[in-house]
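tl;dr need the bound structure. longer version: we got a ligand (guanosine-5'-triphosphate) that a collaborator sent over and nobodys looked at where it sits. i said id run it. heres the input, straight from their email, havent touched it
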Amino acid sequence: MSVPILLVTGFLGAGKTSFVNRLLQAEHGRRIATIVNDFGAINIDAMLIGEADDTVIGLKNGCICCSLQGDLLRTLRQILGRPESFDLIVVEASGVADPAGIVQALMDPVIWQSAALDTIVCVVDAEDAGSRRGDPLWQAQLRQADLVCLSKTEALDAEAAAAVRQLLAAAGKTRVFDAGDPLLPLTAILGQARSSRISCSEPGSISDDRFASLEWDHPGSLPLAGFQAVIGRLSPSLLRVKGFLRLDEHGDRTLVFQMAGQRATLAPAGTVQAAGCRLVLIGERDSFDPAAARDMLDAAARGSLAP
Ligand SMILES: Nc1nc2c(ncn2[C@@H]2O[C@H](COP(=O)(O)OP(=O)(O)OP(=O)(O)O)[C@@H](O)[C@H]2O)c(=O)[nH]1
């Protein structure tokens, strides 16, 4: 019998990993294998999800919609070749992925017999939807979705929430659920594919060349004020920052730093222990300069960031 694949897509920082984590932790009695793609060279999402499940495989340093299509198929073959059987395979795309390229890869006739794409969920950041609506990648991700999962709805008033739903409806998306809905059963998510899936198998038209990323590894800690100063200076050119931090002020505790849209958070890393700092910073290639960002972070770590 063929194992269903649930593909989770959505823009950088939309809330895909949070959605997948909730899915893995819910009581549905299914054995789930998860493939997580991070655009950067550090598989932070797999580490964050790895806390919850030991059947998580990370694909990093590229995008499964284009440069890593072959790795995606190889990983699926590995999962299907394991002695234990799975009831579901969840594939979390990177935030820069055009789902059309992933659908095309999954149409591989041999894989399809054993693991067939079931449903595509696009996670949409409700706070960000209005400003992101003209973005061709955001539109491509939405277009391919069978279901939309709205994240970050809790701070929206009724009028703003209605405006987001209207925007989605105008894009033909009426099957919309709230990411935080604790009652949403997996059975309501699966089996939602449009009958026209086959027509979506054209190659993806959006390339990840548009984005540049920096992977910053630092063996020690750095001062909070220096780190805040760097993030503050770079923030106009950044779309996403995530990773593990050690701060001088927090001794040997590992912290998770997340920046998506206008929000930045710093929280304890749970069971993940990083020896130093491991950060991924992503921005548009024409405005984000990874080399300059690296110099600034190095200077902050040395305590010599220019004022
Ligand atoms: N307030 C709020 N924050 C959320 C929600 N969903 C996700 N976040 C936060 O948004 C940030 C990004 O969430 P992720 O789940 O890592 O987003 P992602 O789409 O996997 O990110 P990339 O894989 O880097 O593209 C994190 O700080 C999350 O805690 C939500 O529903 N409400």
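gonna send this back to them w/ a short note. The chain has two domains: 3-200, 208-302.
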